[in-house]
Design goal:
The protein has about 400 residues and is of the alpha/beta class. The radius of gyration is 24 Å and the shape is elongated. The chain has helices spanning about 60-65, 85-90, 90-100, 105-115, 185-200, 205-215, 235-250, 265-280, 295-300, 320-330, 350-360, 380-400; strands at about 10, 15, 20, 25, 30, 35-40, 40-45, 50, 75-80, 100-105, 125, 130-135, 140-145, 155, 160-165, 225, 250-260, 285-290, 305-310, 340-345, 365, 370-375. It is about 35% helix and about 25% strand. Bound molecules: MU-OXO-diiron.
Length: about 400
């Protein structure tokens, strides 16, 4: 079916043999408007290793690309850097077809593969720092636990200066071009940031430790090859700098006002609160949840210093879209935010209190208990909205030393 698809030669001995998913629009709750790739790689030394596989429906595409270089039966080893099914869905069938001498993974990955595919053996655990000889080339395995699963691992080929970084440094971006330096830099940065904000943000402390470890090991890869999106060669220091900044989450003078609305009152509050923030010099983005995907709010929040959340009260609680967003954001564990809750209500008004609970869970420095307005805001209530925006803006300015 996929005859004619080809591998991409990256170095003398390394080839991309992955798959392009132009259709993907949702990745477990993350809107992937530009699709994605599932990257897999051949390392062709005197012995041959396949680094990672692809999502199950893309097995044929990967095997076709492999066949453009070698017969798949020549693969001696399959290295599994990460157990998640976008990289392993095809693994059992690939193992059956290729019959490699060994399948290698971190010890948590061995267990995860057993639990995913009910394998009864056949995957060998490798330790952090362990090496695999391919004859004229050597692969080194580096455990990167919780970046972003317990099983996650990097594989490094010192001879070719290639780092196979699985999900880390990736992006959901399907393109006909494979290298980041061949693609619109604004698109590359946006999709890399979106990936970080939605996948790696909760593990920012570990990202900082990983960057320190990479520096301490003296790794100077010439190529960083993630399992999603484009590859890195010329701008690796830029990429590492982005990760260092995103992991630090030092607040910038930017605020996100996010809300949903029933009859326009909470929308009016959001707009005016945004005006108050802007008056303090804080760059402010107002995002209606009817039209802003949760993963785009998370992306906008990366590096922002304030989060203000508004909801009307419906059936004694938050609007469903607001509850969805807050559940998602709480799991991403953003740090260093100031903020506030607000919303219009008719008679019971629980939504603001519920938002406050989530903001407290995210350790947001809140400007009081928030602002509730009955039904439609009068001019004096809109004045309170401006004041709330200004208060949060001043707090953020103090935090930023402005
Ligand atoms: Fe791309 Fe965590 O899987």
């Amino acid at each position: 079916m996929y005859a004619g698809l080809e591998a991409l030669k990256i170095t003398d001995h390394v080839y991309w043999v992955g798959a392009i998913d132009w259709e993907l629009r949702d990745f477990h709750g993350y809107a992937t408007g530009r699709g994605s790739t599932y990257n897999a790689f051949l390392v062709c030394g005197e012995r041959i290793a396949l680094i990672d596989t692809v999502k199950k429906p893309f097995k044929g595409e990967m095997l076709a690309r492999i066949r453009s270089v070698i017969d798949p039966g020549e693969i001696d080893y399959i290295v599994v850097n990460h157990a998640e099914m976008d990289h392993t869905g095809s693994l059992p069938e690939v193992i059956a077809e290729v019959a490699p001498e060994k399948v290698l993974a971190s010890s948590p990955c061995v267990k995860a593969l057993q639990d995913h595919f009910h394998l009864t053996g056949g995957v060998q655990a490798v330790k952090d720092g362990e090496r695999l000889s391919l004859g004229n080339l050597t692969l080194t395995f580096l455990e990167t636990r919780m970046l972003h699963w317990p099983d996650s691992m990097f594989t490094y080929c010192e001879d070719e200066k290639v780092l196979f970084s699985q999900d880390a440094f990736g992006s959901h971006l399907a393109t006909s071009r494979r290298y980041a330096d061949e693609i619109d830099p604004d698109v590359v940065k946006f999709e890399s940031a979106k990936y970080y904000a939605n996948i790696l943000l909760p593990y920012s402390g570990l990202v900082e430790k990983l960057l320190a470890r990479v520096a301490a090991l003296g790794l100077r890869p010439a190529f960083v090859l993630p399992d999603h999106g484009p590859f890195w060669r010329r701008d690796i220091d830029t990429l590492l700098g982005w990760y260092a900044a995103w992991a630090e989450q030092r607040p910038e003078r930017r605020a996100i006002v996010v809300y949903d609305t029933m009859w326009g009152s909470t929308a009016a509050m959001a707009k005016v609160i945004g005006e108050g923030l802007a008056r303090t010099g804080v760059e402010t983005t107002v995002m209606p949840l009817h039209g802003s995907h949760r993963s785009d709010v998370a992306t906008a929040l990366l590096g922002a210093g304030a989060l203000l959340v508004g909801s009307p009260t419906i059936n004694n609680g938050m609007f469903p879209t607001v509850a969805d967003l807050l559940t998602y954001l709480k799991g991403l564990k953003p740090r260093n935010l100031a903020g506030a809750a607000f919303g219009s209500y008719g008679w019971s008004g629980e939504a603001v209190g519920e938002i406050n609970e989530y903001l407290a869970g995210m350790k947001v420095e809140r400007a009081g208990e928030g602002l509730k307005v009955k039904y439609v805001p009068r001019p004096e209530a809109l004045g309170e909205c401006v004041a709330l925006g200004e208060l949060v803006g001043r707090t953020l300015n103090e935090r930023c030393g402005a």
